[in-house]
Write a structure and sequence with these properties.
By secondary structure, this protein is mostly helical. The chain has helices at residues 6-19, 31-38, 41-48. Helix 1 crosses helix 2 (31-38) and helix 1 runs antiparallel to helix 3 (41-48). The longest helix is centred in the N-terminal third of the chain and has 14 residues, at 6-19. The two termini are 16 Å apart.
């Protein structure tokens, strides 16, 4: 599943960094913390590796 926004991609990258042991869980907050808790490393890799060209910075709440 590719990222739908640059913010989602960035949050997945932060969560992936913790899953790999490169960062601390205490560094996470908000969406990245939720992603860390609920997604596998493979799922996070898929979202974090999305090409961000053409992605919106954030999604509107209506989406």
């Amino acid at each position: 599943m590719p990222a739908k926004s640059k913010a989602q991609q960035k949050a997945a990258g932060a969560a992936l960094s913790v899953k790999r042991g490169d960062s601390k869980v205490s560094d996470l907050k908000g969406a990245s913390k939720e992603m860390y808790d609920s997604m596998t490393e493979k799922e996070l890799e898929e979202i974090a590796s999305t090409d961000h060209d053409g992605l919106p910075d954030k999604l509107d709440n209506a989406d």
